[in-house]
Amino acid sequence: MNEATRVLLDESRIPRNWYNIVADLPVPPPPPLHPGTCRPVGPDDLAPLFPTELIGQEVGADRFVPIPPSVRDVYRLWRPTPLVRARRLERALDTPARIYYKYEGGSPSGSHKPNTAVPQTYYNAREGVRRLTTETGAGQWGSALAFACAQYGLECEIWMVRASYDQKPHRASLMRVYGATVHASPSPVTGAGRKVLEETPDSPGSLGIAISEAVEAAGAAQDTRYALGSVLNHVLLHQTVIGEEALEQLASLGETPDVIVGCTGGGSNFAGLAFPFLREKLAGRMDPVLRAVEPEACPSLTRGVYAYDFGDTAGLTPLLKMRTLGHGFVPDPIHAGGLRYHGMSPLLSHMYELGMFEAVAKGQTECFEAAVRFARTEGILPAPEPAHALAETVAEALRCREAGESKVLLTALCGHGHFDLGAYDRYLSGQMEDLALPRDRIDTALAELARLPGT
Ligand SMILES: *Cc1c(COP(=O)(O)O)cnc(C)c1O
Predict the structure, then answer these.
(1) Domain Tryptophan synthase beta chain-like PALP: where (predicted)?
(2) Which structural domain, as residue segments, surrounds residue 226?
(3) Tell me: the pLDDT tens digits for 173-222?
(4) Is residue 1 part of a domain?
(5) 121, 281, 351, 419: which has the fewest Cβ within 10 Å?
(6) Ligand 1 in reach of 111 Cβ (< 6 A)
(7) Does residue 204 share a domain with residue 264?
């Protein structure tokens, strides 16, 4: 076995194709439904929101989708990303497990999000769109889209969830440096935002509310489309560059993973790392366990239901069959803002139903404990979202110690936490609480679901 610590690939190894796992599933995922007719949505329903090429990718079943040369050229700014063996963490845990992390925090905006922001912006620009609207939770997606819009000369207008806007004002500053316009959501500039503000003037906001605002704004202008940073099939597709590279990097060391761990908000970084390995698993070439980690404060996989629901709070999107806590659910303002989404990617939700991966939920203090341990050993400051994956990776490494097993663990370190130091301060000064969710709050949110068509 090769003993390298940091595995770097040459630029020429940036993948040439994205991998579409739908081609290899035993049963295709259920389609999105039009809320009025309860029929599957067609391309015409989506055309006001998304460019043709992305709609094709959303419903496509081709196994491989070529990455356009222009997109590969922007990827060259930070891809291929490093795969690193966390030897110092292993030593600190005294574990026989070998721990690897795939680090996406070295991208221009600091997370995996530019992997999809760049192609989404490219396809929109190619179809003559002049402005993109979007929501952002933790601010990672907003920064990524603002960066991509700067690359292709598009305007960018962003609704940032109020809780994150207040916790991390400098994320909004970064978006403005890239040239974007940023509103705290709920905002008075859309009907959806005004409605929430009337009922709850001090609302912390949620991704669902911010999506309603961005979708409304895109629908109101001819030259404007909407871009989503997670959840949808085309987003998961673009993120598979992570797993394709990791597959090659681990193979160059003569390693195959036993356990692959990623955090899940809408599911894109987990899917991006896991899907290429799952392809190999389905083909019988390896047999890793795949495990998603979500926050206890927003447990869509582990405590939600599998049902048709809206992707946003106001009910402007098609109905998506997914694991959901109900579109009216507003998660507590935990520090992992990127994991505060009421639903889960329909594709991952379908695969969860098929038993293709596992899920666990974690409280935030355990995650920050693992993140601080990681920072003190490996040096990188993780974002609060991948801290969830690190907490499970540490737990698995400790189980390996108990059992004397030298498993190979692979985790997605999908972003850095340089804008999250306020949260680290709270943790270090003992002010951080776990915000576990009482059953009655889930029941209340789910009660609304029973009134939806198709459920
Ligand atoms: C957006 C984001 C997430 C959550 O989104 P997924 O689609 O589940 O990946 C997690 N981590 C970071 C760093 C993010 O920016």
Answers:
(1) 77-415
(2) 19-67+113-231
(3) 999 999 999 999 999 999 999 999 999 999 999 888 999 999 999 988 99
(4) no
(5) 281
(6) yes
(7) no
Q: What does the alpha-carbon distance between residue 117 and residue 134 come to, in Å, rounded to a whole number?
A: 11
Q: Bridge-partner residues for 159, per DSSP?
A: 135, 183
CATH number at residue 161: 3.40.50.1100
Give every CB contact of residue 373 below 8 A, 6+ residues apart in sequence.
Answer: 89, 92, 394
415 CA closest ligand 1 atom index: 13
Task: Judge whether residue 375 has pLDDT over 90.
Answer: yes
Would you say residue 445 has pLDDT above 90? no
Q: What is the pLDDT of residue 454?
A: 58
Q: How far is CA 27 from CA 21, 22, 141, 358, 452, in A?
A: 11, 9, 31, 18, 25
pLDDT of 360 above 90: yes
pLDDT bucket at 453, cuts 50 / 70 / 90: low
Q: What string of H, E and C letters represents the secondary structure of 319-354?
A: EEEEEECCCCCCCCCCCCHHHCCCECCHHHHHHHHC
Please tell me the total count of domains within the chain. Answer: 2
Between the CA of 138 and the centroid of ligand 1 the distance, in Å, is 9
Decide whether any atom of ligand 1 lies within 6 Å of the 417 Cβ.
Answer: no
Mutate to test the pocket of ligand 1, among 145, 175, 230 (most ligand atoms within 8 A of CB): 230
395 and 351 in a common domain? yes
- CA–CA gap between residue 407 and residue 96 (Å, rounded): 7
pLDDT digits (tens, 9 = 90+) for 124-150: 999 999 999 999 988 999 999 999 999
Whether residue 263 has its Cβ less than 6 Å from ligand 1: yes
Answering whether pTM is above 0.90, one says: yes
Distance from chain centroid for Cα 153: 25
Average pLDDT, the chain: 95
Two tokens at 55? 């709609």
- Could you tell me if 99 and 29 lie in one domain? no
User: Is residue 230 in contact with ligand 1, taking CB distance under 6 Å?
Assistant: yes
Atom of ligand 1 nearest to the CA of 386: 11
